Amino acid sequence: MASTLGAVFLSRRQAPALTFLSQTRRTDQSSLFSFLPPVPPRSSRFPLGSWRWKLSAAPKDVFPVIKKRKLGRVACFMHEEEEASSISGSFEFMESKQIEDLGKAKLDQTSAKNKDWTSKIRKVADRIFTLHGDPWMVPWTADTIVQVMLLWIASFWLVGSWIIPFLAHAAGFSKESFTHRGQALYSLLTDIAEGLAGIAILHRCLARFHPLPSGWFRFSLKGNWHFDVGLGCLLFPLVNLLSQINISLVPILPAPPVGISSVEQSIVARDPVAMALYAVVVSVCAPIWEEIVFRGFLLPSLTRYMPLGWAIIVSAFVFALAHFNVQRLLPLVFLGVVMGVVFTRSRNLLASMLLHSLWNGFVFLDLMK
């Protein structure tokens, strides 16, 4: 009945399939398993091997299908679990990898910035400490360098503290009895004597190396060294700031009262002649003597044993120590570096002398306020 109703309502193409299904339903289930032996009672004892042999004798087109379906379902399920675990693991791996990539990118950015800054600083340092022209040929050794510097310092102390006062006393003059102009003239003559003694010692120590190689003790009005001097003048406020920092770091040592100096007395008295003489001492004489020794001789001589940058720094440090003032050590070192850079860029002593003179004039004008 069901097959006839299905044949009425279904199409001709679906009718044969329905007929086949109805026929398979009517088939006896025992026909499907007719190959199996009858189930023995519990009391009977058949060997297990014979039962397995009879099962193995069954057709292969029945059980393998079932086994394949079951195994296929299990295999698909396991495959899904493996895919899920692999997907989750891959997501975790991708997330950790992304985090590592972000961290590496940040580190690369910071390292790139640091490299940029260091490269910029190196470029600036290379441009500043680059020696224009051929390097100096230094024919003398370290023994000559130490000899010249020690004799130069000793001559300044000996001439200024002993020889000039002794000659003045022998001539019947006393420094305390001088007027403001007399004291200013006395300071000018003392400074000139000290400078000439230092130049004489330098000439005597280097006499055996004459004629000197080219480039030594060069004075010239030509070139673009005026621009370097102008840039050095822009650093004067920084030198003044370092002076204040140095004074705050090094306390004033207790010293016996010496009263007001002759320079300060002339400034207080507002004597124009005395102030002009002191200005010549500070802004003309001192820069000439000191630049000839420290930038003209010491700095080029050190390039035989060290790079140019270190030669500038060492000569600046010696220049600061030669003033015998701990409270002015930092500004004098910095000022010596600036003057050394100006000198090495121009290879001209006039450049460092002018910058030195302008700084001393700046200090002298500050004292006059």
UniProtKB/TrEMBL annotation:
Segments crossing the lipid bilayer: 145-164, 273-293, 305-323, 329-346
Matches recorded under PANTHER family: CAAX AMINO TERMINAL PROTEASE (PTHR43592), CAAX AMINO TERMINAL PROTEASE FAMILY PROTEIN (PTHR43592:SF24)
Domain (CAAX prenyl protease 2/Lysostaphin resistance protein A-like): residue spans on this chain: 275-361
Name of the protein in question: CAAX prenyl protease 2/Lysostaphin resistance protein A-like domain-containing protein
Recorded superkingdom: Eukaryota
GO BP annotations, alphabetical order: CAAX-box protein maturation
Organismal lineage: Eukaryota, Viridiplantae, Streptophyta, Embryophyta, Tracheophyta
Record's keyword terms, sorted: Membrane, Transmembrane, Transmembrane helix
Sample GO molecular function, one term: endopeptidase activity
InterPro entries noted in UniProt: Rce1/LyrA-like_dom
Pfam families named among the record's database cross-references: Rce1-like
Record bears the keyword DNA damage: no
